[in-house]
Amino acid sequence: MSSPALVWFRQDLRLEDNPALHAAAGRPVLPVFVFDAEAAGEWAYGGAQRWWLDASLRALSDRLTRLGATLHIARGRAEEIVPALAAQIGAAEVHAGRLTEPWARARDERTHTLLQAEGRRLVLHTSALLTEPHRVRTKEDKPYSVYTPFSRALFALGEPPAPLPAPRHLAPVADAPAGLDVDKLGLLPKPPAPPWWSGFERVWEPGEAGAQRRLARFMAKAVRGYDGARNTPGAEDGTSGLSPHLRWGEVSPRQVWHAARAAGVEGEATWLKEIIWREFSHHLLWHRPQMPEAPLNPQFAQFPFEPDARLLRAWKAGRTGYPIVDAGMRQLWHTGWMHNRVRMIVASFLVKHLLQPWQAGARVFWDRLVDADLASNSASWQWVAGCGADAAPYFRVFNPVLQGEKFDPDGAYVGRWLPALAHVNPKLVHRPWEAATPPAGYPAPILAHAEGRDRALKAYAAMRGGAEQA
DNA sequence: TGAAATGTTGGGGCG
DNA sequence: ACGCCCCAACATTTC
Predict the structure, then answer these.
(1) CA A270 → C1' B1, Å?
(2) H or E element in which residue A172 lies
(3) HSE of A339 in the Cβ direction (CA atoms, 13 Å)?
């Protein structure tokens, strides 16, 4: 019998197209998951992520059991636990998918060093991305900082490899050490009654089977009209709903790429562009590890934000008085997810109208999104704030009323999340303060749009003036 | 993956 | 018939 292998699951919670698992299969396998909140520091799992992880680990554990192996679950410092387990079972290799988070890269290096000291090694596979961030370079051998040439370079690499099949059987490690039960991880805090995540399970089915069902449903019908429908938050099935499944690696970008190719319809190209935005974000995080904290455009370090706990609280609670903003924040709270068009609108409102630092918004999303991913979240907030790579020009200030009227013309979206507006005349639902009798129970605008826009543009001008003098 | 201000054009009402 | 004004529709510029 060949020597056993340890497969370290981190953010690739699937059996299909899992290169780490594929490499280890054929030998006795110990699958391991370590809940390591310490290594991530302030970017440890947010609340909604913990809800998802709890359910996804149960699904993964079930699938592995059916194939013959038992998922070993542990809690603590992974860089110590993983090498210790490898030593205990006599594994020469630890296989895992490569991660792009700066803290995870540092931890992988330390883990590899510890393993090496005992003649073992950590083998990292291309698993969560179509290609490794360091494999795509400009002609001048530099990382990309603009989306379009990056996507061209990615296409120039040709079709990604076909997905790998799941192992049909896994040989367990003899005398495998027992791990914890998922319940013992205590991923979900003691619930308030009713818990804030009580609506999540009506919307989501974490785990690989749920991911496959979503993908199949999207390919069967929605991808066809994706080009137009993706911007209509009030419609069901306008988007794929795959973001949390991709974030947790319950489905791989290679799988969705090939599924879209097979569909061969109009919306396919638009949707693949979104997948490539995800790749681009990881590319940026890999090459600019400070991205979660600091603006990529250094000029924006001088931006005169005006941190204000009251304004931030109103935005978080969905009480700004702008229906499209408030509905988005309610959808986020109740489902752990927000439509992408609405994410742009609420982010623009926080950063520009309310002059709150984008980092504050990114933290809120981090805690509340089930699909929160450090690369995509940081890159997208910087994009909206105008300080990111290939970012929207700062002066592109969304008008929350016009955006609402354009993308939610009948008010279906805002009515669903804001009961107070459910029966307001669609002509006025995005500007309820103009109604003869404004709806009871809905706040007046926290500030006038024109005033907020003006102030944002002045702040931008002040930053640029200050930078020129410097 | 904007919005608002400003500029231009052309049709129609009207004296 | 003509000039004038109004203004919608579109284009351009600016933030």
Answers:
(1) 12
(2) strand A171-172
(3) 27
Report CA(A448)–C1'(C12) in Å, whole number: 28
Q: What is the pLDDT of residues A334-349, one digit of tens each?
A: 999 999 999 999 999 9
- Measured in residues, chain A has a length of 470
Give chain C positions with protein CB within 7 A: 15
Report CA Rg, chain A. Answer: 23
Helix, strand, or coil (residue A9): strand
Q: Tokens 């003869």 appear where?
A: A436
Q: What is the pLDDT of residues A163-198, one digit of tens each?
A: 999 999 999 999 899 999 999 999 998 887 889 999
Give dist(CA A33, CA A72) in Å, integer. Answer: 6
CB atoms within 10 A of CB A38: 13
CA atoms A55, A59, A60, A64: torsion sign: positive
C1' of B2 to CA of A19 (Å): 43
Helix axes A358-368, A309-317, angle to 10 degrees: 40
Rounded to two decimals, the pTM is 0.96
